[in-house]
Backbone:
């Protein structure tokens, strides 16, 4: 995993979605200390000292 887009693809696979057919922009990832996360946000920036959790939401389920 190198960036946020990679993380989204992994999350889709883990949640049983086909990452090839479901666009990664259907996965909303929120970070408590960063307002805007771009697709190329490095994974290292998503970790912080107080271990705050990332909030993940799947939007626009196509089924």
Residues:
């Amino acid at each position: 995993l190198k960036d946020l887009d990679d993380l989204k693809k992994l999350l889709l696979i883990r949640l049983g979605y086909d990452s090839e057919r479901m666009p990664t922009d259907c996965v909303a990832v929120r970070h408590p200390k960063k307002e805007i996360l771009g697709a190329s946000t490095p994974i290292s920036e998503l970790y912080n000292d107080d271990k705050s959790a990332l909030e993940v939401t799947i939007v626009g389920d196509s089924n």
Summary: DSSP finds two helices and two strands in the chain. Helices lie at 4-14, 43-46.
